């Protein structure tokens, strides 16, 4: 199978490229749902007097808050476990107004509001974190390999992983938050690990044929990726089925699952293909 890939690698490079372009389109036209820590808003944990349907609670809170002249457009129930309910509001609302909106049907046990200034500052920090992560990763890769084509291939693979992950977040409505940004930064590390493994085996080792070296790299890299994916799938299922209020953990796991699957494509189709192309051109 690997031998056939090595023969038709130029065509297979196109697959992750197409997926990356589609993901860019999803982010551009569908956008990303920002969490309250990045766009501002309010998050409350409620202890209701009796089990309440999510839709009826959303309608009650929205109507009551708008009657107070707050102009609320977005009220979402994040988790509903009978009488324990987590609610997110797309605007900053003080706790007094929120208690009045409940109208005696429950009490607020935890409350957090983030204003537009703090959310704008958080968004700025996100941009700087992503920019510095890519900058220092790129510098490190160029120092290690000291060749433009292999270095650019590693950087392209990492960028594609992030773009595909963001496309998945847009498609499955996973919010962009401080936590999910942390997951995206982790993906840069995962991507660079497998790409550097592949590039080192192919370019720096001389024993065996190119196909044999690529096969050994794939065995190690796929073991790493599948192990990481399996652990994230377990985390996602546990949080969804047993701890539904742990939305942050399930979002992190979902982002990592998408990114790790994307990394398999970008490493073993795109990066391996580019390296094979580069090695042929050097002969």
From TrEMBL:
Entry's Gene Ontology cellular component terms: plasma membrane
Keyword Nucleotide-binding part of the UniProt annotation: no
Stretches that traverse the bilayer: 12-32, 126-145, 152-172, 178-200, 221-243, 249-275
Membrane topology per record: Multi-pass membrane protein
Stored InterPro entries: SecD/SecF_arch_bac (IPR022813), SecD/SecF_CS (IPR022646), SecD_SecF_C (IPR048634), SecF_arc (IPR024921)
Residue span(s) of domain Protein export membrane protein SecD/SecF C-terminal: 103-278
Gene Ontology biological process: intracellular protein transmembrane transport
Keywords recorded for this protein, A-Z: Cell membrane, Membrane, Protein transport, Translocation, Transmembrane, Transmembrane helix, Transport
Record's subcellular location: Cell membrane
Matching SUPFAM superfamilies: Multidrug efflux transporter AcrB transmembrane domain (SSF82866)
Keyword hit for Protein transport: yes
Protein name: Protein translocase subunit SecF
Organism: bioreactor metagenome
């Amino acid at each position: 199978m690997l031998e056939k890939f090595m023969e038709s690698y130029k065509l297979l490079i196109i697959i992750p490229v197409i997926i990356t372009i589609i993901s860019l389109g999803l982010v551009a036209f569908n956008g990303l749902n920002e969490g309250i820590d990045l766009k501002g808003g309010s998050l409350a944990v409620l202890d209701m007097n009796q089990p309440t349907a999510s839709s009826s609670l959303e309608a009650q809170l929205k109507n009551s808050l708008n009657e107070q002249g707050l102009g609320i457009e977005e009220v979402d129930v994040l988790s509903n476990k009978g009488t324990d309910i987590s609610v997110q509001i797309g605007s900053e609302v003080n706790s007094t107004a929120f208690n009045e909106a409940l109208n005696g049907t429950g009490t607020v046990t935890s409350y957090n509001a983030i204003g537009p200034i703090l959310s704008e500052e958080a968004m700025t920090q996100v941009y700087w974190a992503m920019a510095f992560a890519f900058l220092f990763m790129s510098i490190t890769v160029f120092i290690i390999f000291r060749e433009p084509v292999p270095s650019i291939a590693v950087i392209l693979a990492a960028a594609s992983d992030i773009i595909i992950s963001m496309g998945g977040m847009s498609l499955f409505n996973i919010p962009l938050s401080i936590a999910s940004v942390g997951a995206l930064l982790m993906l840069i590390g995962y991507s660079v690990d497998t790409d550097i493994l592949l590039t080192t085996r192919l370019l720096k080792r001389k024993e065996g044929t190119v196909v044999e070296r690529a096969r050994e790299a794939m065995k190690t890299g796929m073991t790493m990726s599948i192990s990481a994916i399996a652990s994230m799938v377990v985390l996602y299922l546990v949080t969804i089925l047993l701890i539904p209020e742990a939305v942050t953990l399930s979002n992190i796991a979902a982002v990592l699952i998408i990114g790790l699957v994307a990394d398999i494509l970008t490493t073993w189709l795109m990066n391996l293909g580019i390296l094979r192309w580069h090695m042929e051109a050097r002969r």
